[in-house]
Amino acid sequence: MQKVDGYTAGRGAQLNVHNRFDAQAHEVREDFLNYCALEGEDPYKTQTVLIDTFPKTIVNRVDSPDLRMGFSLNPYQGCEHGCVYCYARNSHEYWGYSAGVDFEQKILVKRNCVELLEKKFQSKRWEASPIVLSGNTDCYQPIEKKLEITRSLLKTFLKYKHPVGIITKNALIQRDIDILKELAKDNLVQVNLSITSLDESMRRMLEPRTATVKKRLETVEKLTAEGIPVSVMMAPIIPAINSHEILPLVKAVAERGALSVGYTMVRLNGAIGGIFTDWIQKTMPDRAEKVLHQIAECHGGNLNDSVFGRRMKGEGNIAEQVAQQFTIARKKYLQGRALPVLNCDLHEQYKDGQMKLF
């Protein structure tokens, strides 16, 4: 695949776009780059920076009618995975950072989230309702291997017998199969694994620091073998990049035990439009215009669509063709399968972390 000069391997975003909330704009000037070259300095600091935060609450209500979740919990803000299309990039602007490279480098860690979750579960006003880990950014991103915050959260869900959903694209979830198995015994967990493409070379460009395609397919198989229900999200569908892979991908995950599949159409909201456009012009200049035009065709001529009920699936001929392919794929490969409904009935007996006897 042809790439132009200026492409940085291992990064999704290739630049730091302006934060719309900042009064000042920042740019990298040629004289600064020349100075760095003479001094042997790296003008772009690429190491990940962890920023400790201590929020007052951790469980967020999700009001969007497009999302099948009532509550979410995100132990991290920002994400090292670096997926170029990620809708969560815009949320980094609220913290004072760019939706571009900053989103991948500056990771906010919510150090007190386990304590806050326990407090929520012990509240007499809280009634059990599924809470989804990673409603915004991935709870199994690389730093989780060291910090183990997500693992501690899962132990808390198990202790209080509370239902939890997980969205991830990292095979690190295999580390926690011991806890997930215990949750699954009482129908308290569902895993939604994101697999965007079966093409490893495309995965490396779209999602540079995620688990490989092979490891993700292996994860579906291993979780299923342990009785942990798995759904696969092909998200997002990007016309002329992965839209031709729907049937083979659904076949592959069905063979490994997935109970369902879902999808979203790519939409480049806010700062992501500029980030994605810059990225595709550097990584695939030969098809950049075609891809951008086809994305716009799915959203009424725009790269973004914010209308509930339409924004996630798109509209027009391309979006309709994608929907039809998924209908065919489900009938062909997933007939008779469905995710079990999460159990919300046990938690009340475990409000203090121990089963009530009377």
TrEMBL record:
PROSITE patterns per the UniProt record, alphabetical: RADICAL_SAM
Gene3D superfamilies on file: 3.80.30.30
Record-level Gene Ontology MF annotations: catalytic activity; iron-sulfur cluster binding; metal ion binding
Keyword Iron among UniProt keywords: yes
UniProt keyword terms in alphabetical order: Iron, Iron-sulfur, Metal-binding
Radical SAM core domain boundaries: 65-311
InterPro entries linked to this entry: Elp3/MiaA/NifB-like_rSAM (IPR006638), MJ0683-like (IPR040086), rSAM (IPR007197), rSAM_sf (IPR058240)
Protein name per UniProt: PA0069 family radical SAM protein
Taxonomy of the source species: Bacteria, Pseudomonadati, Bacteroidota, Flavobacteriia, Flavobacteriales
